[in-house]
Amino acid sequence: MRMLMAYVIGFAIVNLTAGCAVPPASFTPPAGTESGLRVLKRIRVGFNPIGVAVTDDGAFVYVANSTSNSVSKIATAAMRVVSTIQVSESPAWIALEPKAGLVGITAREGRVLTLLDIAGNYLINNIALDFSPEQIAIHPSGRLAYLSNSSDFNLTIIDLEKRRVLKKVTMNSETAGLAITPDGQYVYVSTRGQHYNLMIVSTREHAVTARASAGSAPVAIAMCPGGKYAYIANHDSDDITMVYIPEHHPTVNIPVGSGPIDLAVTPSGKYIYVTCHRDNTIAVVEAASQKVVHRLKLEVSPCGIAFSPDGAMAFVANYEFKSPDQHALAASPQLALGTGAAHRINNNTLMVITTGPYR
Question: Most buried pick, 57, 114, 229, 244, via CB within 10 A?
Fold first, then answer.
């Protein structure tokens, strides 16, 4: 719980996806799972997972295990962990860079950006930082990484080729969520400021070019694949803000549930999935109607979320076991969940969720 509170205070962001070489065949959900939204499988990873990233080909899923100080690599063909890599203290968020074959992981307590080799799963470099990093977003060119943090008023830019800090862009408050527009021209950065808590940074000039206001405590940002809209999860106002990207203009706030902590847009752009950690739910928002059209109730507190390339599955980190019947459930060694198989409820699993018609 301590780590989650640090996450809420320090803020969070959306997970990025990228490609991987020589993939195994993608996992095919069993027949019939397309009919509804439900938990298909739980995969045991490290403790208190936060960030989730899926490769462009859907072959692998990476999960940052914040209190195990490790990253789990899952093969979707078999739906199991194929390797566990030890990293610096308190890993939080992940981004993949296919051109250079890199995995980037932010480590809060370790105060480093860790770079791993995708194919070989070995450490390439630890880039030392003078702050505790939160989210990482990598530019489509693969040359630059952008880091947010909760300890100063800066957006930090990393040169991935030279493995060093390139520049810091001053913000109006501590930085939180961030995401890059699909055309690579802007970085959207949310801050802890009460007003104008959405900063738009030009990736060419590395300067703030526009400001806007989201909801209260914006913690995560996701881009629509078409590049027309951005969606921002507002943790304290229990809603998401829809932003029209061409004008950087917020258009509407959509109520979603208690304590939205992360979100992701389906590859089709039709739905936005929002993980709400306070009420243990995933809210599904239809982009066209701008309304919640489905809600999946969980027995755990969901955190990071990412989709398979075809949108048929969502991968959700189970940060914390949390239920109204928590004490009674914890006393039972086994519980029938999901597909009916016995699972032990804990805080070290990745949930595989079939999206059914909401894709």
Answer: 114
